[in-house]
User: Which sequence fits this backbone?
């Protein structure tokens, strides 16, 4: 019997090639999209879950979202709270020079950590011992790739390498390369103890410079300990009112602390998108199958007359839809394999085909397929099987007339989703372009920046003169870091001021040099900038931005006294606000001063011509000062654009999947319109006999579809507005939602649907009327 | 009114070439009532389709109102058709989704008549056909005879010069068949040219001329004497 079902299924497949193609190909596309998105979602959710103690690992976080803590915090927490099993500090990701034999290069991913670190986080030691690897301050643990780079096939253990120019370290361990699905980018580790050698204070509450990780005992919840540690920093530094809490490391990647949101939003968005696309494909399947039901009605009648029970027929139609979904699944898997490289480049991931073999994935795919099969098969199975034999044999059931309202609802749903996605893509792209092109209030074109050190600053006047002698370099200035991400890399200093009445106690504390204003073409709203003519500027002058003045509620700021992180000074000027962080954030209060030992980034304004020669020239100068370092340079506008990489990637994915969703919808519409044209063939014939013109027939057949698209717009617009508006709230600077993208999406869907439908109906409209009537 | 010269229609299928009409010469004058008879597959319907401008001949000439239309495009034929020809089919060919009124109204819509005029005209025709009481019903709610009366109403609502009826009584019992034939006769007497295909010798006699077709060729043409006494 089963064989008979499959035979019928197989023959139907070939008899109605167009329908079969639309069904299988549409579903395959849907399944392929779903698998890819599922993989992406799974990957995002897996971040940092691979640590054996993942659920017990936390990072100390302040209420403003900062994880940069005092160096003394770690030891204090470990000593005072029994709930904490391990604790380790960890420096921020940094490039250090590593030198061994002939190889001398800057390596990123270098971290300074405490001994507990390897007990907390899971690293697989290929060589060496995780327990003892960091015992000696002069040791280093390398990733396999780094070890291979420096030592080739030699055994790296015990070898001495030169690190950060001045330190000879012994390789005490080699770890397997750290997985990509982590918030961190660990490549090699050096004991934090070593930092004492360059007089770094590792036991102070005065400066926030390092991250603090803790591992709680199994039975301890973060909630119970958060209640106890909330004011530990304030107890030490009374003016620091920030609340301390522990944030799970597994949330670092997905959630923006403390306000929520972050990547998790996109995980939800894309999960919904995958569901939508699969739904669209399923709707195609259901629509086409029910539409064709009348042509199967006779078969149902005959089978029932021959003794088939309703359940037999349900089984038959389910097996047909399962056959189709299985075929679609295989085709879908082939599509996944074909499109994986493109998907990887879109998402900046490095997924390999292997992920399809993973048990979870196989299970996921099977579940997707079965669900698809059941959903898409259920309506036809239940609908067709209840046909009464007498009626169908007498021919009183007409081709899919009865359930046309269901079909309308399904098509409207499809189009609503497509329109929603188009509006979403347009607005996301608008927002990204807006961020890229917004006037930040700071010169960003033709500015390059590079990291420098004390050697550079000591001879700064001479170097500056030499550089400016090149006609292609117009300005040079120094700062603590390139002025587009002054937040995490600039410190947050606690502030006190003359006549203080409110609690605004922290500002972004930055260091600049005399030429900063001119180089970046910034504007002062009051007072003056730092000047060499005022010799005391280097000691006690502050320039603040308007946001700071507003936060301090100062009416006449010039000359007012300011104390920042213990340094006393006077306000000499007020800068007009400019965006010195990504546009996710508003302009926060910021203060500038001249602190020579902070000036580790050089910014140069160059001519837009002869760029490569100019950079070569700068490189030569750099090598004269730092012969042992690599010369690395970045352009400011590229660095700024990079901040929106996440949004850009997401915008791209959104765009492509929107296109696919529309394409699958159109496949269905194509099938449905050809079905409608066929069903109304007789009517078309009669109308033509009575004098209807081709264009009249075209109108007749397309009006319905146009109506549906119109209704779909009515549904999609408010929904899209609601969701996009919510999404935009994450940006301090955002576009105004206007009607244009909505109208565009409406018109676009209308054009696409009319074209799709016309393709079939033009054929019907142009045919000789006698063709339509002959078969009657 | 209608004149054909060496009219030929050949159907091509994948392997076989079938000649449906072979060099047919026929002339029909205004106000004539012509019956066409012949066995199944002799080419009656093909001839009707070509005469009715629903299809083009493969070769030969066709003069409709003194216009050579054999090679006209569908668009041009559609225009001639709606202005001059009314059709009545064996299977009625009413549109199931439209009511009686809407079905009859259709030709007027395509002729671009005003709504008030359409209403007046449709009601007048339905009255004449005696189915005014069914005006808001759908075709499936009517008997065969009633459906055919609606079809005839639709055929004449645009005041065509000629009515082509393809076995108009084929699906009707004799009572309803007679009714339809009487209606056609009345129309003919009022001045409308009628060409009718039929299997029934009795009904063929309603015409003033009977053309016999066989294997795509005209074999005999009889003039009905009662019209010529």
Assistant:
């Amino acid at each position: 019997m089963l064989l008979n079902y499959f035979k019928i299924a197989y023959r139907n497949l070939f008899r109605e090639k167009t329908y079969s193609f639309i069904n299988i190909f549409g579903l395959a596309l849907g399944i392929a999209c779903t698998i890819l998105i599922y993989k992406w979602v799974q990957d995002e959710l897996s971040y940092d879950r691979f640590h054996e103690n993942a659920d017990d690992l936390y990072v100390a976080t302040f209420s403003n979202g900062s994880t940069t803590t005092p160096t003394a915090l770690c030891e204090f927490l470990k000593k005072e709270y029994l709930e904490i099993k391990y604790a380790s500090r960890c420096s921020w990701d940094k490039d250090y020079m590593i030198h061994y034999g002939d190889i001398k290069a800057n390596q990123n991913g270098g971290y300074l950590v405490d001994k507990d670190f390897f007990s907390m986080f899971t690293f697989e030691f290929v060589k060496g011992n995780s327990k003892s690897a960091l015992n000696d301050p002069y040791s280093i643990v390398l990733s396999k790739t780094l070890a291979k780079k420096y030592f080739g096939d030699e055994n790296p253990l015990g070898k001495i390498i030169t690190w950060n120019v001045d330190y000879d370290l012994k390789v005490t361990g080699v770890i397997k390369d750290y997985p990509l699905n982590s918030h961190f980018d660990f490549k090699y580790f050096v004991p934090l103890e070593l930092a004492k050698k360059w007089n770094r204070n590792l036991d102070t509450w005065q400066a926030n410079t390092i991250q603090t990780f803790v591992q709680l005992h199994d039975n301890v919840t973060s909630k119970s300990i958060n209640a106890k540690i909330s004011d530990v920093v304030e107890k030490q530094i009374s003016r620091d009112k920030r609340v301390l809490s522990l944030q799970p490391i597994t949330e670092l990647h997905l959630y923006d602390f403390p306000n929520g949101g972050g990547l998790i939003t996109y995980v939800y968005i894309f999960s919904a998108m995958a569901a939508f696309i699969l739904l669209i494909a399923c709707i195609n399947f259901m629509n086409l199958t029910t539409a064709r039901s009348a042509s199967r009605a006779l078969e149902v009648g005959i089978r029932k007359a021959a003794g088939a029970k309703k359940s037999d027929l349900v089984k038959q139609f389910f097996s047909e839809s399962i056959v189709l979904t299985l075929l679609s699944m295989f085709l879908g898997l082939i599509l996944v394999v074909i499109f994986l490289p493109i998907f990887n480049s879109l998402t900046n991931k490095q997924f390999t085909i292997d992920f399809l073999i993973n048990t979870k994935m196989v299970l996921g795919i099977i579940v997707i397929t079965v669900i698809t099969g059941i959903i898409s098969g259920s309506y036809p199975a239940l609908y067709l099987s209840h046909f009464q034999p007498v009626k169908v044999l007498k021919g009183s059931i007409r081709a899919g007339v009865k359930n046309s309202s269901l079909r309308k609802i399904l098509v409207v749903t499809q189009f609503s989703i497509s329109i929603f996605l188009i509006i979403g893509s347009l607005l996301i792209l608008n927002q990204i372009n807006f961020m890229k092109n917004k006037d930040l209030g700071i010169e960003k074109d033709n500015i390059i920046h590079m990291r420098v050190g004390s050697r550079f600053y000591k001879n700064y006047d001479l170097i500056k003169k030499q550089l400016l002698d090149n006609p292609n370099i117009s300005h040079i200035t120094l700062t603590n870091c390139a002025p587009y991400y002054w937040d995490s890399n600039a410190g947050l200093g606690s502030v006190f001021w003359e006549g203080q009445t409110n609690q605004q106690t922290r500002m972004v504390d930055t260091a600049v040099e005399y030429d900063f204003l001119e180089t970046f073409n910034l504007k002062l709203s009051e007072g003056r900038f730092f000047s060499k003519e005022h010799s005391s500027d280097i000691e006690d002058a502050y320039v603040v931005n308007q946001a700071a003045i507003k936060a301090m509620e100062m009416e006449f700021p010039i000359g007012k006294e300011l104390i920042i992180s213990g340094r006393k000074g006077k306000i000499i000027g007020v800068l007009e606000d400019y965006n010195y962080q990504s546009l996710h954030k508003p302009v926060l209060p910021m203060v500038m001063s001249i602190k020579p030992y902070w000036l580790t980034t050089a910014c140069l304004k160059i001519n837009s011509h002869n760029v490569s020669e100019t950079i070569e020239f700068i490189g030569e100068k750099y090598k004269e000062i730092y012969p042992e370092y690599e010369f690395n340079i970045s352009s400011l506008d590229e660095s700024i654009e990079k901040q929106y990489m996440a949004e850009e990637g997401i915008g791209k994915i959104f765009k492509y999947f929107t296109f696919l969703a529309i394409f699958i919808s159109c496949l269905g519409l194509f099938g449905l319109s050809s079905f409608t044209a066929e069903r109304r063939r007789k009517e078309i014939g009669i109308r033509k006999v009575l004098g209807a013109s081709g264009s009249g027939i075209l109108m007749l057949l397309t009006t319905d579809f146009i109506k549906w698209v119109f209704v779909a717009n009515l549904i999609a617009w408010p929904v899209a507005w609601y969701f996009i508006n919510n999404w935009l709230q994450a940006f301090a600077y955002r576009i105004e939602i206007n009607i244009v993208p909505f109208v565009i999406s409406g018109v676009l869907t209308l054009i696409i649907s009319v074209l799709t439908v016309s393709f079939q109906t033009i054929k019907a409209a142009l045919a000789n009327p006698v063709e339509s009537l002959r078969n009657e | 009114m209608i004149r054909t010269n060496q009219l030929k229609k050949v159907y091509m299928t994948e392997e076989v070439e079938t000649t449906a009409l072979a060099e047919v010469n026929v002339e029909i004058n205004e106000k004539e009532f012509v019956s066409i008879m012949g066995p199944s597959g002799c080419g009656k319907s093909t001839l009707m389709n070509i005469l009715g401008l629903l299809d083009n001949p493969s070769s030969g000439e066709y003069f409709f109102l003194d216009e050579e239309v054999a090679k006209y495009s569908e668009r041009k034929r559609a225009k001639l058709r709606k202005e001059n020809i009314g059709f009545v089919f064996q299977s009625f060919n009413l549109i199931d989704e439209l009511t009686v009124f809407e079905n009859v109204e259709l030709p007027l819509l395509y002729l671009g008549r005003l709504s008030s005029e359409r209403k007046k005209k449709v009601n007048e025709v339905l009255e004449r056909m005696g189915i005014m009481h069914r005006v808001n019903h759908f075709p499936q709610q009517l008997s065969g005879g009633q459906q055919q009366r609606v079809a005839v109403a639709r055929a004449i609502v645009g005041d065509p010069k000629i009515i082509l009826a393809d076995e108009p009584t084929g699906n009707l019992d004799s009572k309803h068949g007679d009714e339809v034939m009487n209606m056609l006769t009345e129309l003919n007497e009022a001045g409308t040219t009628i060409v009718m295909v039929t299997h029934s010798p009795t009904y063929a006699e309603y015409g003033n001329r009977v053309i016999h077709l066989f294997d795509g060729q005209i074999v005999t043409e009889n003039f009905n004497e009662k019209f010529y006494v």
The first helix of chain B runs from residue 44 to 51. DSSP finds seven helices and eleven strands in chain B. Chain B has a mean pLDDT of 87. The two ends of chain B are 24 Å apart (CA to CA).
